[in-house]
Backbone:
């Protein structure tokens, strides 16, 4: 910071915000670890709310209440510096998004690491982390788990990429990674796709004509990318999965190609799989 920056001070080997200023009729100890009952803090809220980790929070003169750094509340509601140093868990010790963000830390979804909000720009200065979650966003979805069966679903997740099979039919495996490579290596001769899609994607059911057009969907599949089951079959044939013949109990040949629910041909039969009799009064 500049020498004339009146909002900061050099302390504990780093530049930190100035400590809070108590109200004129209150007496507060200079020791951030001292508990003084019923003393309100008047430090600007936006300064405290930007800090994470109890040690940084308390050294800046803020309160650390319920795992959050704040300027509102009473001094005796905050933990002391001694409590912080003896019981607090470092951001780096958390191994899941939920526990990380509950403790006012930042979760990097693409690298699956928990980092203090005060230092993350210095830990990843070149944008190595592709997506952050924090407690304010309340965002700890399955985002970044990369458990996708389809190529499109995998590449829509910013922390995932596709290990592409050398068969060049669209088969592959979704994995966590970044622009240069996955965190776990692809099998030999497989190609890594992260920010673009391979030309040919036929879900393993066809080769490509002219590099990108599925010329002959096999295995009872249909669609531009062989992503649907053909008439009389049901299932989800993405990434090499198979289609099964409609099972309509002998009373029909057509069914929904996703759910398998049948269209019963006999008026005396009903049900998702044509298993229920309909009694017709004479």
Residues:
């Amino acid at each position: 910071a500049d020498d004339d920056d009146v909002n900061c001070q050099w302390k504990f080997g780093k530049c930190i915000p100035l400590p809070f200023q108590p109200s004129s009729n209150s007496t507060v100890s200079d020791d951030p670890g001292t508990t003084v009952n019923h003393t309100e803090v008047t430090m600007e809220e936006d300064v405290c709310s930007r800090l994470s980790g109890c040690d940084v929070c308390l050294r800046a003169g803020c309160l650390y209440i319920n795992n959050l750094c704040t300027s509102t509340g009473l001094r005796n509601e905050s933990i002391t510096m001694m409590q912080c140093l003896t019981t607090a868990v470092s951001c780096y010790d958390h191994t899941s998004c939920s526990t990380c963000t509950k403790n006012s830390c930042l979760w990097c979804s693409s690298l699956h690491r928990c980092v203090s909000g005060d230092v993350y720009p210095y830990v990843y200065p070149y944008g190595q982390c592709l997506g952050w979650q924090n407690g304010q966003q309340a965002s700890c979805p399955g985002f970044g788990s990369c458990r996708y069966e389809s190529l499109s679903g995998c590449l829509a997740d910013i922390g995932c990429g596709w290990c592409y099979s050398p068969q060049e039919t669209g088969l592959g495996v979704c994995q966590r990674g970044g622009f240069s490579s996955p965190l776990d290596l692809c099998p030999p001769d497989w190609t890594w796709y992260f920010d673009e899609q391979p030309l040919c994607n036929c879900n393993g059911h066809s080769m490509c004509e002219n590099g990108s057009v599925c010329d002959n969907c096999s295995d009872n599949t249909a669609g531009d990318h062989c992503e649907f089951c053909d008439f009389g079959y049901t299932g989800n044939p993405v990434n090499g999965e198979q289609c099964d013949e409609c099972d309509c109990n002998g009373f029909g040949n057509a069914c929904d190609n996703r759910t398998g629910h049948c269209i019963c041909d006999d008026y005396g039969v009903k049900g998702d799989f044509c298993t229920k009799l309909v009694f017709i009064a004479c």
Observations:
- The first helix runs from residue 45 to 49.
